[in-house]
């Protein structure tokens, strides 16, 4: 009788432990139903700008060109600004700029969309001021993330190089995630390439800590 009782007790404990483990596994990602609900507020950035053909750029490749990866909360959208694109001497862009200058043509100054954000954490890379601005080329409005005040994001960022961009950072849908339900993330873009979709499957709808671990692993490669 004692053996039977002991066996039942051990079996019951095993079920409890297994049950807790299963709950943790289930809690490690959002349900499809919850993701669909959240996508109404945090839609995927899809499509390409008119008359522009773009290619998928994997998260890892964006990371290689970035200065930092941050977690930040959007404070407000700033007024759009114009900025002269830098053109290094000796490059095709630089040669074209010199020719335009010789002909009295003003350099092309595209418009940029800008957001003021509060940086909560620098995951990897160089320090970033607690309050800073993120920007992207206005030609990509409708395909880049449409950020709203109060949204929290994870973004790979790169220092601006033009005079009007000093102290600000560019960001892109290819390496931006929304932080949702406090501890989870949704990708801003899923991509078409196998490499991008593979990374998205490992991170989209999963925990923020999971994304942080993935970023640190890629950064330290």
Please provide a written account of the structure.
The protein is α+β, with helices and mostly antiparallel strands and 221 residues long. It is built from six helices and seven strands. The radius of gyration is 23 Å and the shape is globular. The model is unreliable at 1-27 (pLDDT under 50).
Q: Secondary-structure map with pairings?
A:
Layout: H1 2-27, H2 32-38, H3 59-65, E1 68-82, H4 92-102, E2 111-125, E3 131-137, E4 152-159, E5 168-170, E6 176-180, E7 184-187, H5 194-203, H6 208-219
Beta-strand content: 25-35%
Derived from helix and strand composition plus strand pairing, the structural class reads alpha+beta
- Binned, the helix content reads 25-40%
In the sheet with the most strands, the strands line up as 1-2-3-5-4
**N-end to C-end Cα span:** 58 Å
What composes the largest sheet? 5 strands, mixed, barrel
Any idea what the shape is?
A: globular
Number of strands: 7
- In terms of quaternary structure, the protein is single chain
Q: How much is the average pLDDT?
A: 83
Could you spell the SSE succession in H and E letters? HHHEHEEEEEEHH
Cα-atom Rg, whole angstroms?
23 Å
Which stretches are low in confidence, meaning pLDDT under 50 for 5 or more residues running? 1-27
In DSSP terms, counting alpha (H) and pi (I) runs of 4 or more, how many helices?
Answer: 6
